[in-house]
Amino acid sequence: MKSYDVAIIGSGPGGYVAAIRCAQLGMKTAIIEKYATLGGTCLNVGCIPSKALLDSSHHYEDAVKHFETHGIEIPGEIKINLEKMIGRKQAVVDQTTGGIDFLMTKNKIDVYHGMGAFKDATHITISGESNEEIEAKYSIIATGSKPTTLPFATVDKERIITSTEALKLKEIPKHLIIIGGGVIGLELGQVYKRLGSDVTVIEYMDRIIPTMDAGLSKELNKVFRKQKFNINVSHKVTSVKRNGDEITVIAENKKGDLIEFKGDYCLVSVGRSPYTAGLNAESAGVKLIDRGQVEVNGHLQTSSSNIYAIGDVVKGAMLAHKAEEEGVFVAETIAGQKPHIDYNLIPGVVYTWPEVASVGKTEEQLKEAGIAYKTGQFPMRALGRSRASMDLDGFVKILADQTTDEVLGVHMIGARCADLIAEAVVAMEFRASAEDISRMSHAHPTFAEAIKEAALAATEDRALHI
User: Where are the domains of the chain?
Assistant: First the structure.
């Protein structure tokens, strides 16, 4: 039986990053993955493939709608080759997961393929092509999450699908019905809307992207309606039925009326649930709580002191970069260091176009907490860079403490906001004031100037270009 200092169950962003950091710190490390490829949901059927399809569909939409305006004329009809588009997506996935294989070899991490389960707190059985057992002084649970389903909607993976199947469809839906107006549903909805599908979004809450600042929800809703999305908020889905190639969804609106929606595909996108099935956690003394979530303390330590848990299986936002930070945190904790994570400064991003990004407190949270704040907002359309690229939708909003001027939250929607949010994270990590940001030189012309202008607007309402 092989013995390790640390064994990690799950090779998603949290798991493989934890493994690398453990190896860097001199620990003999093993990683266990039940699937044939490393990388977990994010690299295989989540973040990476969805962004590949978003980019491909964006290129197609630009060619159809915008190239002529730029003076680019393409003779003949512009056609979609969905098979080739899906093939490119898979090539990106293969290259990325292959990179994880390389990193495991480089860092001398032993990789086991099979289902990892605890025999006890220091022994893990691996069921795969061959059955093995290893010993580990410490273990890290990084088994991620799976799409949440609805009890009355049988996912057949053909017409009633999850995000996994939506990434590899063999045809473009005529009418895609999406249950859930969160990040995953909206991103995949925009992919197929660009490719020619009619798209209907049904959301239970009173707005799309309901966990983000209400101003972002309102602006994205406006943009999506302009793009001819059919968005229905405050609708509770009560029935999903398939008859041949037709899907019928029944939802109750806020008046209590039953509304019928018909399409040829239905994407169930109502969130994700922790995946701990088959882990045999109780044999290791690990306590599971709501929906199979692993209970941890402030050090991400489970009820079994030598076992930790990170990422989607513990509380908090289900984000790849949050899992990565937790993977490093646990590795350094095991090594006796004193790492730190500020969960308030984990950014959230929606990779639609325009992109949506946020960090810190929302206006709703500040009001609920009774914190006096001031707001500075600047529209993207006032930027020369936005006019040059024809990306006019959106804004940057900065929320700062009314008394101290410390930045409490930054919320933005517009071109390249997924990258721009990093400036806000850095500023808030150093507890910058709005005035600090306003006095920093930003290159012109750039989208980032909107951050400086929003900071100016929050500082005595003195934005320069509106």
Answer: 2-147+273-341, 160-270, 345-458
**Would the CA dihedral through 257, 258, 260, 266 be positive or negative?**
positive
Can you give the length of the chain in residues? 466
Whether 444 sits among the annotated catalytic residues: the reply is yes
Give the model's pLDDT for residue 291: 86
Identify the active-site residue in 70, 299, 444, 465: 444
Q: List, in sequence order, every residue forming a beta bridge with 262; answer none if it has no partner.
A: 248
What would be the CATH architecture of the domain defined by 345-458?
Answer: 2-Layer Sandwich (3.30)
Q: Report how far Cα 166 is from the mean position of its chain's Cα atoms.
A: 16
Question: How far is residue 150's CA from residue 228's CA, in Å, rounded to a whole number?
Answer: 27
Check residue 441 and report its DSSP letter: -
pLDDT (tens digit, 9 = 90+) per residue, 168-198?
A: 999 999 999 999 999 999 999 999 999 999 9
**Alpha carbon separation from 183 to 47, 180, 208, 268, 400 (Å, rounded):** 11, 9, 9, 12, 26
| CA–CA distance, 224 with 353 (Å, rounded to integer) | 9
The answer to whether the CB of 234 falls within 8 A of the CB of 205 is yes
How far is it, in rounded angstroms, from Cα 315 to Cα 296?
8
The vertex-258 CA angle with 257 and 263, nearest 5°, equals: 140
Task: Please tell us whether the domain made up of 2-147+273-341 is placed in CATH 3.50.50.60.
Answer: yes
Name residue, tokens 């692993």: 294
- Spatial distance between the Cα atoms of 404 and 364, rounded to a whole number of angstroms: 20
pLDDT digits 0-9 by tens, 360-409? 999 999 999 999 999 999 999 999 999 999 999 999 999 999 999 999 99
CA distance 393 to 169: 30
pTM, whole model, 2 decimals? Answer: 0.96
